[in-house]
Amino acid sequence: MDWVAIGLTLRLAGCTALALLFIGLPISYWLATTHWRGRIFVEAIVALPLVLPPTVLGFYVLVAFGSRSALGQAVAMLTGHLLPFSFGGLVVASVMYSLPFAVQPFTVAFRSLDPTLLDVARTFGATRLQIFRHVAVPMSWHGILAGIVLSFAHTLGEFGVVLMVGGSIPGVTRTLSISIYDQVQSLNYAAAAANSLFLLVVSFAILSIVYLLQRHFRIA
Amino acid sequence: MRFSSVLLAFLTVLSLISTNARAQEPKTATREILVAAAADLKFALDEMIGEFQKEHPYAKVSVTYGSSGNLFSQIDNGAPFDLFLSADIDFPKKLIERKKAAADSLFPYAVGQLVVWVSKDSPVDVQKLEMHALLDPSIHKIAIANPEHAPYGRAAVAAMKNLGVYDQVADKLVLGENIAQAAQFVESQAADIGLIALSLAVSPKMQAAGRYWEVPLDTCPRLDQAGVILSATKQPELARQFREMIIGPQGRETLRRHGFIMPR
Question: How far apart are CA A31 and CA A36, in angstroms?
């Protein structure tokens, strides 16, 4: 069992899910409450990673943050290293890649709120931010939880983007899925089997929790 | 409030995972170098790293294997490697041209040998048929490394052309991302025959699972394998020490034992 890769993968999934909570909630709330017609384009952008091959996203990350781009140079000046081939780079790429897995459940939860409750809060003089914090988010928590868990699980299984921008550096960017790829190429089938089983069991457990939550709260 | 209890408990777990998993990483040795190495070096280099770390207890050598072309482009894009061991000499030279490596750090360390490999279950007598084994009717898929970025793939295509079989088998080729993946394709019998590195064919697992024919060196461009120390290294001393070991007597002996030919 490749514990270094397992620790790294969990850390990447945790950071990604946490970042998506803070990035995804405002986007979703805006998507759920705005009447602007152009929102369909924002929704389409959010959903892009569902249909785009990871190689496309990986390629753009390499181009946008590589050593030849101004953006890449700026990041390198601030952090001391380039974004690709670093843990931070994987987090940035994973946040983009898992964005729909957080934003879509969040948005569904916000849209299913009873609008009269939000109206009542508004009548009592609550600001938009107060309604978001004290009414919308607490009442949508099961959808928010589902979104976080799904983006966590999706990041665990990420492969193509990490292959493109990671470089398989042990302890830095060699996640569990990349480690399995390397082990198969080294004909180390026993290690690949152990690590694959680990991912299978963990992913199954996480998805079971998601469905359990969903059923529990639909009945409730 | 149920919201605060469940969601916040979950967030706490997430934050713990995000920060605490750091502790699971091995304690970083005082000095560490990161090597980007051609996939044909897998078994020889793992052994050399073990020896090197025994002799230098405070040093740690981490390695990433891949096709030389892929590793080259990663280094060119700023990947933080200290030492690059290519399966050819052109990629290291290109890095020197692009000022990513010092010209005086170029070192040839081995010559790669291409073989035609079949599983021992295969009816094809590769030692007798030599390159014409590829034309056997039982062969449907031929594994090679991707000639676009893997030197062994380029050598395989050149050898097939030179021995006059390429046009007849071109539509049967399956491309591994690097030579180790091509070897895995044929070892797992997903492909019926493969053109792979001798250094992989003599690894215990593949040695036991098949037989091979060595492609004569004069039928394809020589796989002169060379390395460079990268300009961006923060451990030039350690990188130099590791290079000295690879080209020193101990390294040469290890490489020879793993199926490499020694330069000069």
Answer: 9
- Give the total residue count for chain A: 220
Write the CATH number of the domain with boundaries B113-219.
3.40.190.10
How many helical (H) and strand (E) elements, i.e. helices and strands, does chain A have? 12, 0
Interface membership of A88 toward B (CB under 8 Å): no
* CATH class belonging to B31-111+222-257: alpha beta
Domain boundaries along the sequence of chain B: 31-111+222-257, 113-219
- The CATH number of whichever domain residue A178 belongs to comes to 1.10.3720.10
Mean pLDDT over B167-191 rounds to 95
Q: What is the pLDDT of residues A51-105, one digit of tens each?
A: 999 999 999 998 899 888 889 889 888 888 889 999 999 999 999 999 999 999 9
Vertex B32, ends B28 and B36: CA angle to 5°? Answer: 125
Question: pTM of whole model > 0.80?
Answer: yes
Instruction: State the total domains in chain A.
Output: 1
Residue A124 reports pLDDT greater than 80 = yes
Q: Do residue A14 and residue B65 have CB atoms under 8 angstroms apart?
A: no
Task: Give the other-Cβ count within 10 Å of B123's Cβ.
Answer: 9
Number of continuous H segments (helices) and E segments (strands) in chain B: 12, 10
Rounded CA-CA distance B63/B83 in Å is 9
Domain that holds residue A160: 3-219
Contacts of A81 in chain B (CB under 8 A): 80
Is A44 buried (19+), middle (13-18) or exposed (0-12) by CB count in 10 A?
exposed
CB-closest option in A13, A85, A141 to B80? A85
The answer to whether B31-111+222-257 and B113-219 have equal CATH topology is yes
Residue A220: what pLDDT? 38
| pLDDT single digits (tens) B64-95 | 999 999 999 999 988 999 999 999 999 999 99
**Residue A41 CA: distances (Å) to CA of A20, A79, B70:** 20, 33, 36
| Cβ neighbours of A104 (radius 10 Å) | 21
Among residues 28-67 of chain B, which lie with CB inside 8 Å of chain A? Answer: 34, 39, 42, 62-66
Is A187's Cβ below 8 Å from some Cβ in B? yes
Measured in angstroms, the CA of B64 and the nearest CA of chain A are apart by 6
